[in-house]
Write a structure and sequence with these properties.
Blueprint lengths: L13 H50 L7 H38 L9 H40 L3 H21 L2 H7 L4 H14 L1 H38 L3 H7 L2 H41 L1 H16 L10
Helix pairs in contact: 1-2, 1-7, 1-9, 2-3, 2-5, 2-9, 3-4, 3-5, 4-6, 5-6, 6-9, 7-8, 7-9
């Protein structure tokens, strides 16, 4: 028996939004996980290498500060961190594009995601990655300019308590605005609009449904934390044990912690940790996508507009038979 389709544009209560999120993931979880393996696992493999390299040389620096005076060691530390951050950005782009691209197809296709292959999905994925990159770049520039202005004002103000209080309020306002801004990503990928239209729409819908967005993000953050924590726990245990072994006076313990076997196990666990983090992100992105559909329907009546469009298309496809009206 086929499940009832989970409409994107539908006004829902808080519990219904959570149910729709988990029902959607339950229905399409196998396809999502398969695409994650194809697209995110390679990113996780490289990301784990960068993270382990960075943590290894950070640990060496903590034990022996003279390590950073060596050019090669410092370069390895910076390179590891750079690879880790680059892969994290790419992974976030791919993950968000995957989730919202599939949500768009699920909403548009009569057969939902049944029979969808990675090859047929590739144009939607590339489109989503391009839009995610553009939106991320615009938001980063705007936030950087805003923070830079605050920093310059704080330096110019000096010890003026009045201006300092205004700056604190501006910083709080920035945090408050980031909640509605989270709707800009699903709006930009799911809809055929410009980046500025997506941000404008996100603010317009977001401030009117601010509490709902915050509640969904809070619950999904807990889910992400549980999944990420469970996948990262073995790696953290191995890392803590390694740090303890390396600073111990026992040569056997230090040698085991630095052995290739220990390093390989840590690397594999780092891959699991990175991949688990992106699996958690799927829950967050999906929840925000459902929240966007709720806000768009509640404020703009998107479900009614789509029903009207579908009715007009159905009407256009029905050719009146004049023979029926002869008599």
């Amino acid at each position: 028996m086929q499940r009832k389709k989970i409409e994107l544009y539908r006004t829902r209560s808080f519990s219904e939004k959570l149910s729709a999120t988990f029902d959607y993931l339950s229905e399409n979880g196998r396809l999502l996980f398969k695409f994650l393996l194809y697209l995110i696992l390679p990113v996780s493999i490289v990301q784990a290498l960068g993270m382990n390299t960075f943590m290894e040389y950070s640990l060496k620096g903590a034990i022996n500060e003279d390590v950073y005076s060596q050019t090669g060691e410092l370069f390895s530390l910076i390179a590891g961190y750079s690879v880790f951050m680059l892969m994290a950005c790419i992974g976030s782009l791919v993950c968000s594009s995957l989730v919202y691209g599939l949500m768009r197809l699920y909403n548009e296709r009569a057969e939902r995601l049944e029979g969808l292959t990675l090859g047929s999905f590739r144009p939607y994925l590339l489109r989503g990655m391009k839009r995610s990159f553009i939106l991320g770049l615009v938001v980063t520039v705007l936030i950087s300019v805003f923070v830079l202005v605050l920093v310059l004002l704080s330096v110019a103000a000096g010890s003026d308590s009045g201006i300092a209080a205004v700056l604190v309020l501006c910083f709080i306002a920035l945090i408050v605005c980031l909640i509605p801004l989270s709707l800009s990503l699903p709006a930009y990928i799911v809809e055929d609009i410009t980046v500025m239209q997506a941000m404008s729409k996100a603010f317009r819908l977001g401030f009117k449904t601010w509490g709902g967005i915050f509640a969904v993000i809070l619950v999904m953050y807990i889910v992400v934390s549980v999944i990420s924590g469970a996948s990262a726990m073995p790696w953290y245990i191995m890392m803590i044990a390694r740090s303890v072994f390396l600073v111990s006076d026992t040569a056997d313990s230090a040698g085991f912690a630095a052995s290739p076997v220990y390093t390989i196990i840590m690397y594999l666990l780092a891959v699991v940790q990175a991949f688990g983090m992106y699996v958690g992100y799927v829950f967050m992105y999906t929840g925000i996508g459902i929240q966007y559909g709720h806000a768009a329907d509640k404020i703009d009546g998107m479900s009614v507009e789509r029903d009207v469009d579908n009715f007009e298309r159905l009407s256009d496809n029905n050719i009146d038979d004049s023979e029926l009206f002869k008599y």
